[in-house]
Design a protein that fits this description.
Blueprint lengths: L1 H12 L1 H33 L14 H6 L1 H31 L8 H33 L8 H4 L2 H31 L1
């Protein structure tokens, strides 16, 4: 019951933040579905190889699976890792919006969550770079790989996002220090 009361109180006092939280929840659920579908169909394709023709939204890795199963497993693992990191980043955003209080916005918990989002964004960018390099390596070796721009695009954007959020985390950390000094002074 206490959680429902907190939600009601937050909704009444900070409706804008709660509306953003609902949008982030919907994106998070979509990313979880994508990661789960990739994971399920990838595992299922090991037992029924024809499933690899349409892993998720037309992703066809059947040719790679027929040529070399271990490269297939490695590539699919990288794709699942990217999807999971993206979902986790939105989960952290949800936690921030449920934790933050606009009356006293600077808190250690929110600062730590912002730092963790920066770290996850950088990890996502690096994993996308590794996946793209792996794809180029496989194509160079003559493996049948379709275009995968929807799955491996945006590495630079995630690295930039991580750097920007890291800078915001530093500012937020300083805000926590100033807010605690002001509370001690008063």
């Amino acid at each position: 019951m206490k959680l429902a009361e907190q939600w009601k109180e937050k909704w009444e006092s900070q409706p804008g933040l709660m509306l953003i939280t609902v949008v982030i929840w919907s994106i998070f659920i979509g990313l979880c579905i994508k990661a789960g579908a990739l994971l399920f169909t990838s595992i299922y394709s090991l037992f029924k190889p024809t499933v690899a023709q349409d892993l998720f939204e037309g992703l066809n890795l059947y040719g790679l699976m027929n040529q070399e199963i271990w490269y297939y497993i490695g590539l699919v693992s990288l794709l699942i890792g990217i999807a999971c990191l993206k979902a986790y980043m939105f989960y952290l955003m949800i936690r921030i919006f449920l934790t933050i209080n606009l009356n006293h916005p600077f808190s250690k918990k929110v600062s730590d969550l912002i730092s963790e989002i920066a770290s996850v964004a950088i990890q996502t960018g690096i994993l996308i770079i590794i996946t793209t390099a792996s794809l180029k390596w496989l194509i160079k070796r003559g493996f049948d790989i379709p275009s995968m721009g929807a799955y491996t695009g945006g590495a630079f954007e995630y690295l930039l996002l991580g750097a920007l959020i890291y800078a915001i985390a530093k500012v937020f950390k300083r805000g926590v220090e100033l807010q605690s000094e002001n509370e001690l002074t008063i």
